Sequence to fold (486 residues):
Amino acid sequence: MQRKHNLLVLSDVHLGSDLVHHSRPDAPERADSSLRRDRDLAAMLEWYREHRVGKKPWRLVIAGDFVDFVGMSVSVPQSRVDMPGDALDLTEEERAHGLGGAVEHAVLKLQMVGTHHAEVFASLARFVADGNLLVVVRGNHDVDFHWEPVQREFLSLLSGHAPLEQSCVEFAPWFYYEEGEIFIEHGHQYDSFCSYENVMHPVSPRDPRRSSRSISDVLLRYVVRPTRGMRESGHDDMTIADYLRFGARLGATGMLALARRFFGALGALFAIWRYQFGGAADWVRQEHDRKMRLLAEARQISESRLRALAKLQRPPATKSLLMILASVMLDRIVVAVLGLALVVAVFYFTPTFEYATLAAVFAASLAAGLGIAWARARGPLDASGELRDCAPRVARLFPAAFVVMGHTHLPEVRQDADAETTYVNLGAWAEEDSEDGCAPALPATRTHLVVQSVDGELVAELMKWGDAGPERFQPGYRSGADPTTA
Fold:
């Protein structure tokens, strides 16, 4: 079958991630990494707009986290504050941490992003107006794209830079799929710390006027953004001792403030857990099921296939009190305290020192073993393995030569052992500036995937944007090629 378009796929741009001035008024007006990201992304869009392959239009698929609705911490604009009868309906949490996930809030956030990143929106508008297509897949940081007014505002922002047809922009609620060729989704649904129970209708059972929150969302809003020097990435390898050292650097007042934020986040997570088990939660699930049926009809995909795909997803960690405790390391503290208490009890109740020593060693080993077993059952914070392992199972439900995801910010290309499916992780365009000037824990790889048909064979190349244009990040990957890993 002759393809009518070529694909350009990227993920994790996180526009607006440096708009944090509600929680951190001393933050720079514009982060250096944000300026570099805008310059490079705009240049890449212009380059591909001017360089078509085989005179075919591009279909740009943004595989999630294009706009960082969740990571932003912004106040109500002064123009809205002064307007009588304003209906923003701020909660106490939103007064403390900035605009939230209500539809009106998300529209305002998007408007701020459009102004802050006007260069990117202008290049994207010219790219689409030149006859190319755009597909926006939702990620966990831009889940607010599920609101239709937010989608309309996005189109309006693009149209303000160049005239374009509404049909040239599509919002994919879950994934993008070309049968037998490519399957694209963000990947956060395979990460229990970032997944949502109802991917097609991600609203809060407690307040359906607002988007739902994952553990990652809550910790980002309550702890990371308000804490000077704390970054979003780099937590995978940190221990309790590392956090205690970080707290010590904040001083006594800073450490008390951090503790207050920490327990505030814990209270919010317990509230999310509690509200998942009631009639309101049943209504949200019913709406999710209704939208899934509509998606099946619109895409001519059997509903049973969609439900089978949904079963591959990891349930949100907010559904389990143990997982909530694990997300904030309280599980490790509990194990350590219980282990210490057991050792003390052994010494207290054992009649001789020799027996007490042996029993204490046994008790400490038992506590450590239980801790290790629980850590393995809980799984790592880095979800790269989960996404990679799910790719061949996704391909069995939705046959594709390439299964493409983002989310982890770690670019990767790996072929399944049966040589039928290649898994691609897109890497990221976003990175965080550090206050001490150190290299970011997750540097922006500026990677993107180019998919085209060569002599009737589908070819996908993972590219990175360099100073002179696109460069091959790795050798090209054809369906059936030898396995290679980034």
